[in-house]
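Handout, tutorial session.
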Amino acid sequence: MKILLVNQCFFPDHVATAQHLTDLAHEMVQAGHQVTVVASSRGYDNPEIRYPVCEKWRGIDIRRIWTPGLGKKAKWRRFVDFAAFWGNAMRILFFLPRHDVTVCLTSPPLISTLGTVVARLKGGAVVPWVMDLNPDEAVAAGWLKAGGLVERALTFIQNWSFRRASRIIALDRFMADRLTAKGVRPEVIHTDAPWSHDQAVQYDVAARDAFRAEHGIAGKFVVMYSGNHSPCHPLDDVLAAADQLKGEERLHFLFVGGGSEFKKVQSFARSKVLQNITCLPYQPMEKLSGSLSSADLHLVVMGDAFVGIVHPCKIYNILTLGIPFLFVGPDQSHGSDLARRLGHPEHGRVARNGDVPGIVRQIQEAVALGSQPVNPAARTLGAEFSHSVLCPRLVQVIQQAAARA
């Protein structure tokens, strides 16, 4: 079977969608399929990084798209990069041979529409893997006016492609509900979260100690936010809490990753002269165990307006490691669902957006308890979201969609 995977990011990029799509491509190759990936030739978080235009890697045929790499400093820069990706992806997809199934992620926005157009011309199934919903996300972030001409046009295009999909992968029940509200038939929606990287990420005491020593946080109680820093995961309340807790000498905040809001965190720490904040870039996969294991309390943040639009996929690695987490977000959300399922308030803490005193209190309580041993209950829950469970299941869903088409 010929499988086409389309997304802005792929190996060796470190962002979450690149890692998950790389895992899926490997699984498809191991299942005996021919896999072609169309992705960007530039790094997602650092456009100065360039990757080969054409590459054969571990049995995967990779075709990479040129974009100007203007970055995320302004909306017009993003728009130009997205438009360049769209245009060059169209050229590549039209000249590629027919594929039995095309799996489209959602970066850049509405790329599944292009996959749908090509599949309708050449044949084959289309399976959107909805990592985030646009233009819904743009409206929630205030980048687009709800009900405006642009928003209505983009929503029409999005819904047109979704309603013609053979299957759609939603990440949680809230996202599935949004898709159903858009007119997608419930039987077309398959709901499964993105898996943890449990094959590569394990709790590692030696790597934890080495990472802490390398970054000068040995002996500290480390509160970590690791992953994409974006408006979907508003960090203002967490930063305000860090400012209020600056007198706690034992406590240190570690922000790891990138994204449009990463520089905002750095700027806040500089402007407030906060010695209790350290910012680090995305860590490569081989260092991820040490990086994530170095935390005593992980932060998972979800903006109220983004429930069902984006998904807190970082939480699965945290559960796999068995480290306590604090979810900051609405009660009706996937993060709160998992905290309730965990059933251990000291391991799955919850606070609400806007409640800075509540966030401070939860962190202080965690510090008072000190570094906790690995929690078996968290690991048991995390096992439901392991690579070995979810990745093969997604392969089956894609194979079934191709067979029906």
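The second record follows below. Compare its token runs with those of the first.
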Amino acid sequence: MIRYPSPLNRGARIAVTAPSAGVSVSCHPRLDLVLAHLRERGFDVLEGACLREDYKHVSAPARLRAAELNALLLDESVAAIFPPWGGELAIELLSRLDCAALGEAGLPWLIGYSDTSTLLMALTLRLRIATAHGPCLMDLAPGQDDPLTSALFDHLATPAGQCFVQHSSTHWQSDWGVFSHEPARTFSPTIPTRLAHLDVDPRRPVRFSGRLIGGCLDTIRHLAGSPFGDVPRFVRDAGDAGVILYLENCNLRPTEFLCAIQGLKLAGWFDKLSGVLVGRSSAGDVRTAEWLNQREALISALGDLACPVIIGCDIGHMPPQWLMINGALAEVRYAEGEAVIEQRLI
């Protein structure tokens, strides 16, 4: 059902392109730092043309970004593609992807989160190729030593048929700082991580499994109803293996979040799921009791699902985060505010 790219090992070629937001001059020192760090780790780094500019929210016009992404996806010498970060306009590339050629090729890993997840979900749902939702390139500075981020390359080296295991973090952080002022900054998680089960008894341990699919709700919600967002078909194809949908909210206000989830329910995204994982929200919250807050919106949107829903997960814009392989068969074990996720590349 799922095709997996080859393991990403030392000596492999990593291409860097920005299919959505590019890197402005003020952040070039950070970009140079992380590119040099990849080379120090033993990777051959190929820098794309659509990267070192950011104008009108993008690195280049859509036709150029799409042409470069298509070329890199079809380049047999490329083992992985690392966008610097997300953005907002990756959806412009979907109609320009050469799906006929990509469907026949052995594709590289495409890695990232935020708006990059628009491309990740689209490729997995349309072509049944595994993609990697996790830390982006600009997170990978020298000295980045939190256990989840530092294990990224070990997990991406997992051969097809094998598995890797991740535990929930002990602490997380609410921002990255400003890379233009602190280009060498690494994560400094200080807020204790506490997951929760959206259940009458939130302490009740649960265990569920299924093929992973998901991403940033702000952007992937626009895929519903298109061939690039056919989650119901993915669920049908998974059969008895089941499907786990994971989501995170970057900027949606509580009412926007609630409406987005309800819209996806109408599109069938939540039908017959094995479970749902929700990341920490980086969206701002309301300050008065009369207004709907983020947690209330989450409970209202997802509290009626028949499957387990685990919230506060290491997914998205509040680092650190898990590496989630779209298409992989995962087992989630939750108890007492902590979770373990095992992903098998089968």
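Points raised in discussion: The mean pLDDT is 95.
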